[in-house]
Amino acid sequence: MPASGTQMLGGWSKDRFTAAALVLPDLIGDVEHAVRVHRTATDSQIRREVLRVAADLYGLLRSYCRRAGRLDLSLMVADRAIRAAEDADDPVRIAAAQWNLGHVLLSHSEPGAVEEAKEVALRAVEQLHQAPVTVETKAVEGALELVAVVSDARRRHWWEARDRLEQRATPLAEQVGEGNVQWTVFGRTNVAMHAMSIEMLAGEASEGLRVADRIDTHGLPSRERQFTFGLKLARCHDLRREDAAVLVHLLDLEDIAPEDLARSPLARNMILDLQKRVRPTFRRQVDELVHRLQLA
After folding, report:
1. Mean pLDDT value across residues 261-266
2. Which of 144, 151, 163, 191 could potentially form a cystine with 121 if both were Cys, beta carbons 3.0 to 4.6 Å apart?
3. Which domain of life is it from (predicted)?
4. What is the DSSP letter of 183?
């Protein structure tokens, strides 16, 4: 996949959704055409490389569709990523495609979807263990373990989530260091962010903020992960009704990724709740934020 496309969808541009919408139709058409042309190619190496590109594209599309609020399309492209990775016989991409599917399921409100996300992730871990051990396989395994951690936390299994994070994800992060294998951004920082997320979901805002004080996201190769960290910081302060801190973090998020802020259900809810209760000192800034994001 072209570097510019990867960079755009990976999250470096502030207007990445608007910009991506301009190039995605042609990019999808080009990749689909290449897959059709090489479906019966005699050169198996070229065919596999084309399928790898297709798997990468559909993995990135999963994130785009989810942020655009199209979970139906997100599920479809996640499935296409799995098929392309399997046709390419690429163990790392197969596991990464299952990681993508796990994230789609975590976003669904359908009964059982969050639990299914954990099942998908752990089956993928078992399958990945059949492949040769490399830094890439360990990184994707760690990312899959984090899907299971989030599933446990979303189902209010706090201690199970904490234990899996400590016993499974943390050792893998120590082994692979920081990285971005298959856009998973798995590493020590991401594991620490998940520790913070568990406390936030458990309503332990003070503990979440204590964990956050030890996290530095500036070196992360993903604006999306930096945004997510800031959003969780805002939520921890929101749980404590520290409105000034909530506003500061929201304004910072607007500067980092305004389109992500406008598309995030959690952010929208926080902003609208803040507008209802904020002191007169900050009301103008909150009203202007609501107006800029077109939330009312």
Report:
1. 92
2. 144
3. Bacteria
4. G
